[in-house]
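quick one, two chains, predict together pls
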Amino acid sequence: MNYEKEEFFAPGHGMCAGCAAPIIVKWVLKLAGPNTIVVNATGCLEVATTAYPRTSWRVPWLHVAFENAAAAASGVEAAARAKGEKLNIIAFGGDGGTADIGFQALSGMVERGHNVLYVLYDNEAYMNTGIQRSGATPWGAWTTTSKVGSANPIGKLQPKKPVARIIAAHNAKYVATANPAIFNDFKKKVQKALSYEGARFLHVISSCTTGWRHDPSKTVEIMRLASDTGIFPLWEVVDGDLENMRITYKPKKFKPVEEYLKPQGRFRHLLKNPEYVKKLQEQVDAWWAKYGHHYNP
Amino acid sequence: MRMILTGNESAAWGARLSRPKVIAAYPITPQTSIIETIAAFIANGEMDARYIRVESEHSAMAACIAAQNTGVRTYTATSAHGLALMHEVLMWASGARLPIVMSVVNRAMAPPWSVWTDQLDTMAERDSGWIQVYTQNNQEVLDSIIMSYKIAEKHNILMPTMVIEDAFILSHTSEGVDVPDQKDVDDFLGEYNPAFKLDPDEPAGFGSLIMPEGPYMEFRYKMALAMEEARKEIKKVVEEYNEKFNRNYSPFIEEYRTEDADAVMVVLGTIGSTAKDVVDRMREKGKKVGVARVRYFRPFPMDEMRALAKKTDMIGVVDRSYSFGPGADLYAETKSVLYGHANIPVKNYVMGLGGRDITPQILEKVFNDMLTIAKEGVVDREVEWVGLQGDERWS
């Protein structure tokens, strides 16, 4: 069945103007259809879409705290199997709920091979509590707990946790990074992820206008730059075969990282020092030098 | 069928006969042999359930919550640190009104590291919104699991339940146990009929955000009402079970030779059986003592405790844990419900922490202290730690 004309994520929710997460959720649900149960980790998405007694979810929806969306999804899947029901079980979690506090539960779910699609909407910090650094915050980003000052002109000092690679290394059935601004690639990956049986993981970049400090009208543009500068590469891995990782998107010509940094307040301080911009460009270039040969559209 | 079973095997049999469809299991001493026994039942095709070998107790409870919310009966088991790790989601299970049944094998909380029996782990969860039933022997472990599903699943209750057994004294000790026939248990329990569930045909959300003007307080009040209502259902179900399976459980408090007792010892768990033996010996010497073993700590047996106080001149409460409050929990709650209802001395005896043996000699000494207080009408001190070693400053 094709449900692309139907909405399973209703408007009227309280997500910010310019937030990318509703775009992701809306399309994942359109492609999954109504025979779906959603498990949602605590976070912006949960809080802003379910103010009792209203809800934006037109599919059954369960929230069991912050750190356990993957464990809860495992429980839903086991119960559905016990009842002999076949349906899509989709978990949504932000980067805090996925890469940090929920990481153990996620690792367990993937290792056990539950038939669940886990979607990480990665806005690269704890946005629900007000922009605190997470393991998925990139190097050089300002957050309220990686502040920029005279003793630390950089912001976050560590690189982003490569969460999708780590999950792929569990031999997950299907792992992909995706970007709703590179829409065809995103859509194909969601469809592909839905078509497999087993533990599947989509790492989707999701801009946060308040946390990234950008004009809400620039969401899609900035997310597009994340992949066009090479900062957020788009790839997929089947059955944990990282050797045969397939990079699915590459711009005709990479844009300099500076273009991605410029419109975002969280990186403003980096632009004051060409050394920092250079360092970030080198990190990106190094990734592509190492993995670029996996490009295979 | 008569079998020789440990407390943990009895728990596994109680679960097996209740036919949960999802079991989430994580090992911890001294609970582990429950989930091992269940793993064997499933591997041998004797039990038809999905068995999730989760990566933590926190995830065990989260998986049970989610599975039960999807419309199936669930079971898990834990102890001490595992229970403490679950704390957040224990409150979730009760708040979400999911009638999960869980075995808890009472074990001390570290440090120092101790795997032996102590009731602090479950006492620390007294406010988590779970029904708590403490058991005295392996038969009661098995029977209480079956009864707990029946009580918890009633649509006017919908509260999760901990079935609690003492570490090693029950968990690893074999006794003769009457294992009911599957068919009789099926007749008794019936098919699980969830009050609500995640269902694509009727989408609904669970675990939403609520604002202060929303019915958060009313949700909590309904839980309080359900816990009150559980008193009635516990009584009904225990009587029904006694009748059907030829047992003799008192619903809330098992009283032993309390009718004319000068002093009554209030206890939980296996201390009850030792205390009853001591009572018999002391009665032979003409000392009028009795025992009241509390089965349900949640809901707390208020009326029964008040009725008990009318029969005796003194109550000594034994706690196998300490709460750093006004005495330990069983004492504090006993005294609280007696306030304004009975004007008799009540004293707290804290003993057996970290699995230290509670011998008949210790209990006899305590009974004699209680009789002195009953006679003189004066409590020398509210809380006495019994059996401290090695330093006279402690005595």
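The radius of gyration of chain A is 18 Å.
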